[in-house]
Model the fold of this input.
Amino acid sequence: MKIRTGLVCAAGALLCACQGAATTRPSPSTSYQVGVSREDQFRQGVPQQLGRLGFQVERFDESSTNFRWITMPRTRPVFTDETGVREGEMKLVVTARKAQGAIRGDLFKMTVDMESRTRVHPDSAWTPVRHTPEYDRFAARIIQDFRTAFDTGEHLRN
Done:
C-alpha cells in the first residue's frame, strides 16, 4: 500500500512539473505612465513607434474611450548584470484611455505595460525578469521614447 501511494504521488509530481515547464503564461508586467496625448497624435504614431523599437503589433483593440496595442514578444538583449540568464524577451501593451475631466475631448492618458521574461537555458521555463540596473535603464529608454513622441505636456484636473 505504501509503495503504491508513493508511486501515485511521484507520478502526480512529475506530471505537474512537466505541465509547469511547458506553460507560456504571461509574466508579471510593469506599468509606466507616458502622459497625455491627442488622438490624432497616437492613432498612427503608436504602430510606427513600436516598429522603430523592433516590435510587431499582434492585436489592436479600439472602443470610443480606449485604444490598445498588444505586441508580439520579441527577443531583447541579455544584460551583464542578469546573472545566469541566456535568453530574454519582451512584450508591450500600449493603452490610451480617454482622459476624465479633460477640457478638450481628444485627450487620452497613455500607459505602457512592459512584460519581460528570461530563461537560463533554452529548454527551461520562462521566468519573470529581475529588475537589474541595466535592465531598468533599457526599459527607461523605451518609455522615454514614448514620452518624447506622445506626451503633450498637458495637465489634467483630477
